Amino acid sequence: MLTLENLSLFYGQDNKVLEDITMQVSDGECVLLTGKSGSGDSDIMMTDTINPLKSKFKGFHKTFKQDDLGLSLSSFLLN
């Protein structure tokens, strides 16, 4: 399961890449997320690997029934 609640991503102080994204993907459900280059579609799935010194997240990201903003990408993939 994937849950995003009011997720926003900023690069630097004022460069907002994503704003107020809310979505849920249930177990067994398959979703294709696409967008123009630079639109933030890949950033949604990489919330735990983006450099925190260059970016800032607001909101909540939960997968597999645990908050995983603190997990490494390898931990995320192994769950």
TrEMBL record:
Gene3D superfamilies: P-loop containing nucleotide triphosphate hydrolases. It comes from the Bacteria. This is ATP-binding cassette domain-containing protein.
